[in-house]
Design brief:
With 181 residues, this protein is α+β, with helices and mostly antiparallel strands. Helices cover 36% and strands 29% of the residues.
Length: 181
Protein backbone atom coordinates (compact mmCIF):
# COMPACT_ATOMS: atom_id res chain seq x y z
CA UNK A 1 0.00 0.00 0.00
CA UNK A 2 2.89 2.31 0.64
CA UNK A 3 4.09 1.83 -2.88
CA UNK A 4 0.79 2.69 -4.36
CA UNK A 5 0.64 5.86 -2.24
CA UNK A 6 4.08 6.94 -3.48
CA UNK A 7 3.10 6.19 -7.02
CA UNK A 8 -0.11 8.12 -6.55
CA UNK A 9 1.76 11.18 -5.20
CA UNK A 10 4.34 10.88 -7.94
CA UNK A 11 1.60 10.60 -10.59
CA UNK A 12 -0.23 13.68 -9.30
CA UNK A 13 3.03 15.68 -9.23
CA UNK A 14 3.70 14.69 -12.83
CA UNK A 15 0.19 15.73 -13.82
CA UNK A 16 0.68 19.15 -12.17
CA UNK A 17 4.07 19.61 -13.89
CA UNK A 18 2.51 18.77 -17.24
CA UNK A 19 -0.32 21.17 -16.53
CA UNK A 20 2.11 23.96 -15.57
CA UNK A 21 4.18 23.44 -18.74
CA UNK A 22 1.41 23.91 -21.29
CA UNK A 23 2.60 25.75 -24.43
CA UNK A 24 0.29 28.76 -24.09
CA UNK A 25 1.70 29.54 -20.67
CA UNK A 26 5.22 29.95 -22.00
CA UNK A 27 6.15 33.59 -22.78
CA UNK A 28 8.83 32.51 -25.26
CA UNK A 29 6.20 30.83 -27.43
CA UNK A 30 4.18 34.06 -27.59
CA UNK A 31 7.33 35.96 -28.53
CA UNK A 32 7.91 33.56 -31.41
CA UNK A 33 4.29 33.96 -32.55
CA UNK A 34 4.36 37.76 -32.27
CA UNK A 35 7.00 38.35 -34.99
CA UNK A 36 5.19 36.59 -37.88
CA UNK A 37 1.84 37.94 -36.70
CA UNK A 38 3.23 41.51 -36.75
CA UNK A 39 4.56 40.96 -40.28
CA UNK A 40 1.15 39.77 -41.48
CA UNK A 41 -0.60 42.81 -39.94
CA UNK A 42 1.98 45.19 -41.48
CA UNK A 43 1.44 43.51 -44.84
CA UNK A 44 -2.30 44.13 -44.69
CA UNK A 45 -1.76 47.76 -43.68
CA UNK A 46 0.64 48.23 -46.61
CA UNK A 47 -1.84 46.61 -48.98
CA UNK A 48 -4.59 48.94 -47.74
CA UNK A 49 -2.39 52.00 -48.29
CA UNK A 50 -1.42 50.83 -51.78
CA UNK A 51 -5.06 50.33 -52.75
CA UNK A 52 -6.37 53.59 -51.29
CA UNK A 53 -3.71 56.02 -52.52
CA UNK A 54 -3.34 57.28 -56.08
CA UNK A 55 0.33 57.21 -56.94
CA UNK A 56 -0.08 58.29 -60.57
CA UNK A 57 1.00 56.44 -63.64
CA UNK A 58 4.39 55.95 -65.17
CA UNK A 59 4.66 57.71 -68.53
CA UNK A 60 4.07 55.17 -71.31
CA UNK A 61 5.75 57.14 -74.05
CA UNK A 62 8.79 58.53 -72.27
CA UNK A 63 10.56 59.38 -75.55
CA UNK A 64 7.74 61.67 -76.70
CA UNK A 65 7.63 63.21 -73.22
CA UNK A 66 11.37 63.87 -73.39
CA UNK A 67 10.96 65.67 -76.71
CA UNK A 68 8.28 67.87 -75.16
CA UNK A 69 10.80 69.13 -72.60
CA UNK A 70 12.47 71.20 -75.32
CA UNK A 71 9.13 72.84 -76.13
CA UNK A 72 8.59 73.62 -72.43
CA UNK A 73 12.04 75.21 -72.21
CA UNK A 74 11.13 77.38 -75.20
CA UNK A 75 8.04 78.58 -73.29
CA UNK A 76 10.24 79.52 -70.31
CA UNK A 77 12.61 81.41 -72.61
CA UNK A 78 9.67 83.26 -74.20
CA UNK A 79 8.45 84.35 -70.75
CA UNK A 80 11.95 85.56 -69.82
CA UNK A 81 12.28 87.47 -73.12
CA UNK A 82 8.99 89.30 -72.40
CA UNK A 83 10.04 90.06 -68.83
CA UNK A 84 7.00 88.29 -67.40
CA UNK A 85 6.67 87.81 -63.66
CA UNK A 86 3.66 87.10 -61.50
CA UNK A 87 2.41 87.11 -57.94
CA UNK A 88 -0.28 84.75 -56.62
CA UNK A 89 -2.12 85.73 -53.43
CA UNK A 90 -4.22 83.08 -51.65
CA UNK A 91 -6.92 84.66 -49.48
CA UNK A 92 -8.58 82.10 -47.19
CA UNK A 93 -10.89 84.65 -45.60
CA UNK A 94 -12.53 85.53 -48.93
CA UNK A 95 -11.91 82.07 -50.47
CA UNK A 96 -10.29 83.73 -53.46
CA UNK A 97 -7.00 83.71 -55.32
CA UNK A 98 -5.61 86.78 -57.06
CA UNK A 99 -2.90 86.85 -59.72
CA UNK A 100 -1.06 89.94 -60.88
CA UNK A 101 1.24 89.81 -63.90
CA UNK A 102 3.94 92.27 -64.82
CA UNK A 103 5.72 92.47 -68.16
CA UNK A 104 7.92 94.80 -70.19
CA UNK A 105 6.10 97.67 -71.85
CA UNK A 106 6.00 96.07 -75.33
CA UNK A 107 4.78 92.66 -74.09
CA UNK A 108 1.06 91.97 -74.14
CA UNK A 109 -0.72 90.20 -71.31
CA UNK A 110 -3.27 87.60 -72.53
CA UNK A 111 -6.98 87.65 -71.80
CA UNK A 112 -6.98 84.06 -70.48
CA UNK A 113 -4.34 82.09 -68.60
CA UNK A 114 -4.19 78.55 -67.26
CA UNK A 115 -3.20 78.06 -63.62
CA UNK A 116 -2.12 74.58 -62.52
CA UNK A 117 -1.70 73.48 -58.91
CA UNK A 118 0.44 70.34 -59.13
CA UNK A 119 0.95 68.33 -55.95
CA UNK A 120 4.58 67.26 -55.60
CA UNK A 121 3.84 63.58 -54.88
CA UNK A 122 0.18 62.86 -55.69
CA UNK A 123 -0.90 63.73 -59.23
CA UNK A 124 -4.44 62.53 -58.55
CA UNK A 125 -5.26 65.69 -56.58
CA UNK A 126 -3.89 68.28 -59.04
CA UNK A 127 -6.09 71.29 -59.83
CA UNK A 128 -6.29 73.19 -63.15
CA UNK A 129 -8.06 76.55 -63.49
CA UNK A 130 -8.62 78.78 -66.53
CA UNK A 131 -8.74 82.43 -65.51
CA UNK A 132 -10.02 85.46 -67.42
CA UNK A 133 -8.39 88.87 -67.05
CA UNK A 134 -10.41 91.36 -65.01
CA UNK A 135 -10.88 95.04 -65.81
CA UNK A 136 -8.06 96.00 -63.41
CA UNK A 137 -5.63 93.67 -65.23
CA UNK A 138 -5.58 91.00 -62.54
CA UNK A 139 -6.90 87.43 -62.65
CA UNK A 140 -9.27 86.16 -59.96
CA UNK A 141 -10.87 82.81 -59.18
CA UNK A 142 -12.39 80.93 -56.26
CA UNK A 143 -9.70 79.38 -54.10
CA UNK A 144 -9.60 75.61 -54.73
CA UNK A 145 -9.40 73.17 -51.84
CA UNK A 146 -5.74 72.11 -51.57
CA UNK A 147 -4.45 69.18 -49.52
CA UNK A 148 -1.49 69.58 -47.19
CA UNK A 149 1.93 69.28 -48.70
CA UNK A 150 4.27 70.79 -51.27
CA UNK A 151 2.60 72.25 -54.39
CA UNK A 152 4.18 73.33 -57.67
CA UNK A 153 2.34 76.10 -59.52
CA UNK A 154 2.40 76.82 -63.26
CA UNK A 155 0.82 79.85 -64.88
CA UNK A 156 0.76 79.53 -68.66
CA UNK A 157 -0.58 81.01 -71.87
CA UNK A 158 -0.16 79.52 -75.34
CA UNK A 159 3.51 80.38 -75.78
CA UNK A 160 4.95 81.10 -72.30
CA UNK A 161 4.83 79.84 -68.72
CA UNK A 162 5.83 80.92 -65.22
CA UNK A 163 6.48 78.57 -62.29
CA UNK A 164 6.69 78.66 -58.51
CA UNK A 165 6.04 76.49 -55.46
CA UNK A 166 4.60 76.74 -51.96
CA UNK A 167 3.52 74.65 -48.95
CA UNK A 168 0.01 74.13 -47.59
CA UNK A 169 -0.76 75.04 -44.86
CA UNK A 170 1.30 78.08 -44.16
CA UNK A 171 2.25 80.14 -47.18
CA UNK A 172 -0.37 82.59 -48.45
CA UNK A 173 1.37 83.80 -51.58
CA UNK A 174 4.08 82.99 -54.07
CA UNK A 175 6.12 84.61 -56.82
CA UNK A 176 6.06 83.14 -60.32
CA UNK A 177 9.06 83.40 -62.63
CA UNK A 178 10.32 81.67 -65.77
CA UNK A 179 12.15 78.43 -64.99
CA UNK A 180 15.54 78.82 -66.59
CA UNK A 181 18.64 76.72 -65.91
Amino acid sequence: MKMSMKQSVKGSMMARMKEDNRWYREPFVWLLIAFPFTAVIAGFVTLGLAISSDDGLVEDDYYRRGKEINRVLARDQAAAARGLEGRVELNDAQHQLLIRLTARAQATIPDNVELKFLHATRSGIDRILVLARQSDGSYRAPLPQLAQGHWNVQLAAQDWRLVGSFHVPGERGLDLRPSLP
